[in-house]
Fold Kynureninase.
Amino acid sequence: MPERLRQEAEQLDATDPLASFRDAFVLPEGVVAYLDGNSLGRPLARTRDRIGSFVADEWGERLIRAWDEKWMDQPLVLGDQLGRVVLGAAAGQTTVADSTTVLLYKLLRAAVDASPERTEIVADTENFPTDRFLVESVAAERDLTVRWISPDPAAGVTVDQVREAVSARTAVVLLSHVAYKSAYVADLPAITAAAHEVGALVLWDLCHSAGAVELALDADDVDLAVGCSYKYLNGGPGAPAFAYVAERLQERLAQPITGWMGHAEPFAMGGDYEPAKGMRRFISGTPPILGMLPLADMLDLVEEAGMPAVRAKSVLLTAYAIRVSEELLAPLGVTVASPADPDRRGSHVLLEHDAMREVVAGLWQRGVIPDFRPPRGLRAGLSPLSTSFTEVLVALGHVHDLLTETSESGTSDERKQNP
Amino acid sequence: MPERLRQEAEQLDATDPLASFRDAFVLPEGVVAYLDGNSLGRPLARTRDRIGSFVADEWGERLIRAWDEKWMDQPLVLGDQLGRVVLGAAAGQTTVADSTTVLLYKLLRAAVDASPERTEIVADTENFPTDRFLVESVAAERDLTVRWISPDPAAGVTVDQVREAVSARTAVVLLSHVAYKSAYVADLPAITAAAHEVGALVLWDLCHSAGAVELALDADDVDLAVGCSYKYLNGGPGAPAFAYVAERLQERLAQPITGWMGHAEPFAMGGDYEPAKGMRRFISGTPPILGMLPLADMLDLVEEAGMPAVRAKSVLLTAYAIRVSEELLAPLGVTVASPADPDRRGSHVLLEHDAMREVVAGLWQRGVIPDFRPPRGLRAGLSPLSTSFTEVLVALGHVHDLLTETSESGTSDERKQNP
């Protein structure tokens, strides 16, 4: 390990204005380095410490009364905080609910059902499987056509590609803001504007953006967005997702999963379904209150740090990871498959090598945890508030060691087989 | 308060074989009597005590590795336990996921989409709002007709009513097993058989049954069922729901919310959606793991008690509540709107009086917590493992006192107005 890289990591940690935020997380000793906060963020110590009290007091003592006192509004109160702190969205446009999958389904359906004369959905072939599957399902059930974009391998989905794909036939464009493998950041304002030029809606998947990349949904005139809270928002395994619907669209849109909690008067238990005013109409069943608690804690922490500072650290982290990879791992054949331009890069870095599947398995055994993305990618998710520069260096140092060992043992195996 | 009623409560508590189970729950002193376990069950002390460790250890230390080690199978493992302990369902037919609303939508859609030549849904006008709303929505989007049954006020939905409503046009019948207001228990085996005679499927809503009434879904040849886990299964506010799909139907049915977690190979991230074999295909998004923890604890407790014992206590509790009401409250004008026959009665009792709205408000101020169901019902949910007979008596004693005070102050008000 070159001494200069180590010194640089120490220097970056020493001058990191967010360094102390890392202490807010549960940091068990057995975890040597965690580079998978974009699959499942670490829990906060505050969540660990107070969740038992939530069970005993808020649930156990207030019981059903807590619905009146607090919980009924919780999806929208938390949604508003998420909007203000993370999404660049004014109040009344965000709710926490369901899973990303269910919210994507509801908003896709709301979008296509709002314009029955439009017959196409535009999507891209490299989006996360759920997004692609849902586009296919909704198209099949509503008798629509999908127009697929193949992202440019060196640029992701471009504005020009979207301009070519959309037309007066387009009901909705579904894209991810940050690509889940490569980390390419789509040009959200320009793509949104291009869709609007032909009267189409855009639904943005923010799973790999929320809590890592600055967003300005209102200013960018976004129509619809969804995202998950268990990545950079540290909501915990399978935590509820969020949905954003621009206020100007809410009255026009209806979602198909019409449960009592989206009704104008949930406790009237009346006759026909009458959707609530505003964001509440996008809620279906009873909101998952316990599952929202970790997200509430993390939003407070993000609010304290501020998204500009979070994003600034994210850029430094990914830049440092790329620098270390190029210095330490490129000689072993590792290539960086994420954008070099920090403005086009999310908060993870994809490193590719033919031996990556084995390397990631070896890393896990050492307590170094990135994830593997087929066919040959190590995805290093760098969660700005919980990842240190030293952690990045340690992890990539282990990649270096394992790749060296693999290539040595490969040679030695060959010797054995071909003496 | 007649001494005989108090002695009877004490006697029933003293001879209750499940009395000690009550100590497993969080029982704060400020809650004088809790008769709303059918809206939100009390938390278990075990849940309170271990949920912080779950955050620190299983989530915080295993992190993303826990998906491989345990969480991926958790919805189905917990589903199997729920099937075995509560539903009378063999393994491989139950999953924990989403909310009741979302699961109802998915299974309604799966049922009607499986038989496009059938053009009707049968449902009843007194079902819980979500069920009725979803029937209307699915019917509208799939161009189907709803055939509404009006339940007999003195018997709930009868087999004869279902026989009259179903035909070769019926795709699916959606009914609640235990009516959410009156507590009438539908004749599940006979109604299921009546639907099968015309080739229709039946989807049972078990929200007010699961954990309170014995079920034998396999033996009764049930097709589909859903239910929530935050009532008699004490899963916590907005806890995930469950779905049952008979094994014989699983390959034939497809649900519309096609997320990665229902795919045959979730981590292959491949091209087209290919539904998983078995129950996994009814899962959509990332399962809510944290939200399943309280349910897991409660299922262990129910397994220890055994559903026959739980049901036996439920019958004694509701019978005692009715007896107390008739002796203590009937003279004040309260009527029992739940069935007298214990075989036809779920685990709650609906007591009606014109002043009930005010009475329930007054009860809440005293720490006595049933819920109010418009227009004039006090619904006393008696959760067999956490409710004592004395608790029932204390609560109804407060109803007596409040009704007496109300009628006295009413009289005095009248006097003032009409001197």
